[in-house]
TrEMBL record:
PANTHER family: CHLOROPLAST PROTEIN-TRANSPORTING ATPASE (PTHR30612:SF0), SECA INNER MEMBRANE COMPONENT OF SEC PROTEIN SECRETION SYSTEM (PTHR30612). It is an enzyme of class 7 (translocase). It catalyses: ATP + H2O + cellular proteinSide 1 = ADP + phosphate + cellular proteinSide 2. It comes from Kistimonas scapharcae. The gene is secA. This is Protein translocase subunit SecA. It is a peripheral membrane protein. PROSITE patterns: HELICASE_ATP_BIND_1 (PS51192), HELICASE_CTER (PS51194), SECA (PS01312), SECA_MOTOR_DEAD (PS51196).
Length: 661
């Protein structure tokens, strides 16, 4: 069965989405065997190469046409696509038309590598393209081809900045093809969102599209099925349709697919609502915070910073019972009492200001840990947000109840067609296949890479590491090369910024705190001698253009100052330099006091390291320890995602038994 979307599903007017069936044991085995034995099947790459020839043949024809002739050819092709769907012959012609249109409207003709990636995407695969290979332009191929065949497309990316930038950059191509483009970002009104979602191609972020889908679910309530919607329409209940934002889940092309489909899929998204906190609720929350601040770590509770967990100890439970004996009825129930204290301890010990949240204009604002950006309209659930507000002395907002929830795993499996692009997929290809049915296809680079990697350097202490970072920055700055320094959090970015100020090195900080200047900062990051300090966000999607003199000086130099939770994120940061065959270099400076190692002990490795006096050997052991920890964290995160996925499937099975008849 072809994985390619052909034509718009027959039920388009009824807001289609795929019914997610839990994968049974046989299905999983079949998928596994198919993946292992995929080399036995006719190679997709071979088929794609054949189609590539067809694209170039059609391209020669289109290149000789005038603009108006090209428009006429587009209309004829569109009619054929509506009638026959995206067959092999029509697909080559369609890609050739899109390529010619992009060449004329943007001055960029898709490279062969991009055409191959486009073919992989339209086949419902993850195209693994190296960083900087032009994923933004590549997405126009499957997006426009599907839309010309009548299938609405969502191009999903990780943040508002990229969604807006990509939609704006690619708009001329889509306009020349007669297609409408919408962009959904935070701050739009319902009407504006609805208008954007009604477009042929919608650029949006993963969070926005899932939340908007959940909002639609709340509007639909029990009227989820197409028949209900039809019935409502017949009864003249058009208002349901009118209040829906999305028009179904047809075809999604996910940029930075590993980040969206895996890294962010560890926690479900929740829509909550509720009234303002009552005086009694406020009293309970304040008391909980006061009690939590008196509790002593290791005596009353256990704290694991790396696992991000707190756990009450029996001593703590007894102490708590004593303290709340006469505090009122709320505190008499053990489960309720310990639950609120658990949250208060989480607010006190696990949620750090400037790392997990910011306090801006007297409000607690959550920082997205994947993008480093502020999520202004989001709050933590079930009183946790209010406890953080008490901790920071802010005015209390409303405590909210869960109204609807959705995991990324479930949401994306509901699309009729799903495809993804990323520079870092091979490590997680098994998971992408088993959860989403997405095969990974590696795409060759357009030009050979000229990235120089000098290998990692290890320092026993943070102090030594930061000194080395400053020395390296100064060396590159003196050579006239721009430097991008990747740091783990907003707080670390601020610390390094202070250090650079003391050294008299002019620099820019690209973090959640000053995101309004982001585009300007990124635009300047490739200028001679420019120093940019950035949180994870700059590791994803931002394109740094080099000034011509910088190319001669050796290109952009990237410094990684800490291994991230996943090696893929490190590779993304490295991918900021030496893009599209440009020169560039990458350096890793890490230390034995990095936050990755917090709370970790290693089977006597510390003792061994302290007994080793030779610094090359202790450096090697230190690096091995960091890499090993990173692997452990990756494994733990994969297991959290697996558990969430399995519990989601189980819930599905349970619902199928308890649903109303
Ligand atoms: N076919 C093309 N012709 C000329 N320039 C191109 C072409 N494709 C891409 N580019 C340029 O290459 C640069 C990188 O493109 P883009 O930012 O889309 O890469 P990317 O793969 O998304 O990078 P990342 O992996 O970092 O997200 C951009 O400046 C873009 O204009």
């Amino acid at each position: 069965m072809s994985r390619r979307p052909t034509r718009r599903p027959a039920s388009t007017l009824l807001r289609p989405e795929q019914k997610v069936k839990p994968a049974g044991m046989l299905e999983r085995l079949y998928h596994g065997a198919k993946r292992q034995g995929s080399w036995l099947l006719p190679s997709r790459a071979f088929i794609h190469r054949r189609l590539l020839g067809g694209i170039h043949r059609h391209g020669e024809l289109f290149s000789g046409m005038s603009d108006s002739e090209l428009q006429d050819a587009r209309k004829v092709l569109q009619t054929k696509l509506h009638r026959e769907g995206l067959t092999d012959a029509l697909l080559s012609e369609t890609f050739a038309l899109i390529r010619e249109t992009a060449g004329r409207s943007l001055g960029m003709y898709h490279f062969d590598a991009q055409l191959l990636a486009g073919l992989a995407l339209i086949e419902g695969c993850v195209a693994e393209m190296q960083t900087g290979e032009g994923k933004t332009l590549t997405a126009t191929l499957p997006a426009a081809a599907a839309t010309l065949a009548g299938i609405p497309v969502h191009v999903i990316t990780v943040n508002d900045y990229l969604a807006r930038r990509d939609a704006e950059l690619m708009l001329p191509v889509y306009q020349a093809l007669g297609l409408s483009v919408g962009c959904v970002v935070q701050g739009l009104s319902q009407e504006e969102k609805k208008k954007a979602y009604a477009c042929d191609i919608v650029y949006c972020t993963n969070k926005d599209v899932v939340f908007d889908y959940l909002r639609d679910q709340l509007v639909l309530k029990d009227n989820q099925s197409p028949l209900h919607l039809h019935g409502g329409r017949l009864k003249g209940k058009a208002s349901i349709d009118e209040s829906l934002l999305l028009r179904g889940l047809h075809f999604a092309i996910v940029d930075e697919a590993d980040s969206v489909l895996l890294d962010e899929a560890r926690s479900p998204l929740v829509i909550s609502g509720g009234k303002g906190a009552s005086p009694e609720q406020q009293q309970v929350l304040s008391k909980a915070m006061a009690l939590a601040s008196e509790m002593v770590v290791d005596r009353d509770f256990k704290l694991d910073l790396k696992q991000r967990s707190v756990q009450l100890r029996p001593e703590g439970e007894t102490w708590l019972k004593e303290q709340t004996r006469h505090a009122g009825s709320y505190w008499s129930g053990k489960v309720r009492r310990e639950d609120i204290i658990h949250k208060a301890l989480t607010a006190r010990c696990l949620l750090e200001k400037d790392h997990h949240y910011l306090v801006r204009d007297g409000k607690v604002q959550i920082i997205d840990e994947h993008t480093g950006r502020i999520m202004a309209d989001r709050s933590w659930e079930q009183g946790l947000h209010q406890l953080v507000e008490i901790k920071e002395g802010c005015e209390l907002t409303a405590v909210r109840d869960t109204l609807a929830r959705m995991t990324y795993q479930r949401f994306f499996r509901q699309y009729h067609h799903l495809a993804g692009m990323t520079g870092t997929a091979h490590e997680v290809s098994g998971e992408l296949w088993s959860v989403y049915g997405l095969p990974v296809i590696p795409i060759p680079t357009h030009r050979p890479s000229r990235r120089c990697y000098s290998g990692p350097r290890y320092f026993p202490t943070l102090n030594e590491k930061w000194q080395a970072v400053v020395v390296s920055i100064r060396r590159m700055h003196d050579l006239g090369r721009p430097v991008l320094v990747g740091v783990a959090s907003v707080a670390v970015a601020e610390q390094l910024s202070e250090l650079l100020r003391q050294e008299g090195l002019d620099h820019q900080v690209l973090s959640a705190v000053n995101d309004q200047h982001e585009a300007d900062i990124v635009a300047q990051a490739g200028l001679p001698g420019q120093i940019t300090v950035a949180t994870q966000m700059a590791g994803r999607g931002t394109d740094i253009k080099l000034a011509p003199v910088v190319e001669e000086a050796g290109g952009l130099h990237v410094i990684l100052t800490e291994y991230h939770d996943a090696s893929r994120i490190d590779r993304q940061l490295a991918g900021r330099c030496a893009r599209q065959g440009d020169p560039g270099s990458f350096e890793v400076l890490v230390s034995g006091e990095d936050s990755l190692l917090e709370g970790k002990a290693f089977m006597g490795l510390e003792a061994l390291m302290s007994s080793v006096t030779s610094s090359p050997l202790s450096g090697r052991l230190g690096l091995a320890r960091l890499k090993w920890t990173q692997k452990q964290v990756e494994r733990r995160h994969a297991s959290i995602r697996r558990q969430l996925f399995q519990s989601d499937e189980k819930q599905d099975e349970r619902l199928s038994f308890t649903g109303s008849g």
